[in-house]
From TrEMBL:
The organism's place on the tree of life at top rank: Eukaryota
InterPro entries: Arrestin-like_C (IPR014752), Arrestin-like_N (IPR011021), Bul1-like (IPR039634)
Start and end residues of each Arrestin-like N-terminal domain: 36-183
Protein name: Arrestin-like N-terminal domain-containing protein
Length: 464
């Protein structure tokens, strides 16, 4: 009596478990970038896969792909302390293997070593179907289909550190890898073959900047403050201090792909509207901090994330973490205030070095005087670091801001510890290397499928 189908499958499964697995190794060609296994837009990721099988294996059972994956984990504060997780494979480029190329048999023989070269081109955009959810604006849709950078990939170890990023929470990851899968098609009656081998080699991706509509500045940032100065409780006021950044937010900071030196400067315009004949305050110290925020969610974001998002308050399907680094701190000398005289009352608008300051908050007395000044603060990002560009993907976003704090004192001793703070959004973008212009890159841009189609098929060589 012939064995039953279940018995045949069980015997085949037992045989496959006892059979040794194929040996697979992935090697990447030497890259010209200073950082190992780091690539940017339109770079070629080249290398080879060496395969040694232990039994006859059809070449069509071998798959070589380049994949980009985002993973998010949210801990829910319930009685069971459960987690909700989401994984999105937003990119998958396939290397043609089973095309009947000369030198590679259709069935690989045991004991032989076969070498499969591969070539992948880092695309500029993701397939449109990678973002198929509702969004609040066209600009956000365009941001979601851009290639996101590698973020907190634990497989990319660097000495004792698992990541070169500023902050790491372990709650969200964006990783890229060259992946090799060998299927077992020998089991009869099995519609879905099992995997004999599933191995991968991780790489770091830092995409170049693509011109996009700037996101709407969120309500948790502010580039102008108005502060009333007083001598103390139940004492007459001294006047009003207005601090405003001259930049139109956000600050756009571009840095070269192969250079970690990132710096800029921020100019602050100051105005003091005195009461009576009060003297303007004098600055004591200026400091700047870089704030890095990462937002993540297992549910796709429909709008630009910010700290004012209601979902962050309950922590049910939204998460975020942040960290700040001091980048500038120095004592201020004597600040040169320039005195101005308003001739006539009413609402007035003055131009101060290209910045419009309205007088509607100042007293409207005739011949009212006011003072103006400005300071320039250098901004140098910490080194050595991997400066991950600002990005917004379906599940994960990274944003930056510059927090500027000015400490000052007035002629009254009670106000020596007074200070004012403004928070300016910062947009980091990686620029093309080798001094290429953005226009040159735009003329050669293409979708991932088109790039793969124009490449010549690699020549496979079988060695014994």
């Amino acid at each position: 009596m012939a064995p039953q189908p279940r018995l045949r499958r069980a015997l085949a499964l037992l045989k496959s478990i006892r059979r040794p697995s194929p040996t697979v190794s992935i090697e990447l060609d030497r890259h010209t970038c200073g950082l190992k296994h780091t690539y940017t837009t339109f770079d070629r990721i080249q290398g080879s896969v060496t395969v040694i099988v232990q039994s006859e294996t059809p070449v069509e059972n071998i798959s070589i792909t380049f994949e980009g994956t985002a993973k998010v984990s949210i801990g829910r504060e319930t009685c069971t302390l459960s987690n909700i997780e989401a994984t999105q494979t937003f990119l998958q480029l396939k290397q043609p293997v089973a095309r009947g190329i000369d030198g590679v048999p259709k069935v690989l023989q045991p004991g032989h070593s076969y070498n499969f070269p591969f070539t992948f081109v880092v695309p500029q955009y993701l397939p449109c179907q990678s973002c198929n959810h509702d969004v609040s604006s066209l600009g956000l849709k365009q941001a979601h289909v851009q290639l996101p950078p590698t973020l907190d990939d634990p497989r990319l170890g660097y000495g004792r550190r698992t990541t070169l990023d500023y902050v790491s929470s372990g709650k969200c990851h964006i990783s890229y890898r060259v992946r090799v899968i060998i299927l077992d098609g020998s089991m009869p009656g099995n519609k879905r073959p099992s995997r004999l081998v599933d191995c991968a080699k991780s790489v770091r991706i830092i995409p170049i900047a693509v011109p996009l509509p700037l996101p709407i500045v969120s309500s948790d940032t502010y580039t102008r403050t108005e502060q009333n100065l007083s001598q103390g409780f139940a004492q007459p006021g001294l006047g009003q201090l207005i601090t405003e950044a001259s930049h139109i937010p956000p600050i756009l900071l571009q840095y070269p792909f192969d250079n970690n030196c990132v710096h800029t400067a921020v100019r602050l315009n100051l105005r003091f509207n005195p009461l009576m004949d009060a003297a303007p305050p004098q600055l004591r110290k200026a400091s700047a901090k870089l704030q890095i925020s990462t937002f993540y969610s297992p549910v796709p974001w429909e709008d630009y994330p910010s700290w004012t998002d209601r979902g962050l308050a309950n922590g049910w399907d939204r998460g975020a973490f942040t960290e700040s680094f001091s980048i500038t701190t120095f004592s201020m000398g004597s600040l040169n205030w320039e005195k101005h005289q308003n001739m006539g009352g009413g609402h007035r608008t003055r131009e101060l070095d290209g910045l419009s300051l309205s007088d509607h908050t100042a007293p409207c007395n005739d011949n009212q005087s006011y003072y103006t000044a400005f300071i320039v603060l250098p901004i140098v990002l910490p080194q050595p670091r991997i400066h991950i560009p600002t990005f917004h993907s379906c599940l994960i976003s990274r944003t930056y801001s510059i927090n500027l704090r000015l400490s000052y004192h007035t002629p009254k001793a009670a106000l020596q510890s007074a200070s004012t703070t403004i928070k300016i959004p910062l947009m980091l973008q990686c620029t093309p290397k080798n001094h290429h212009t953005g226009l040159e890159y735009e003329t050669t841009s293409a979708s991932d499928s088109a790039v793969m189609n124009v490449l010549p098929p690699p020549e496979y060589v079988a060695t014994v």
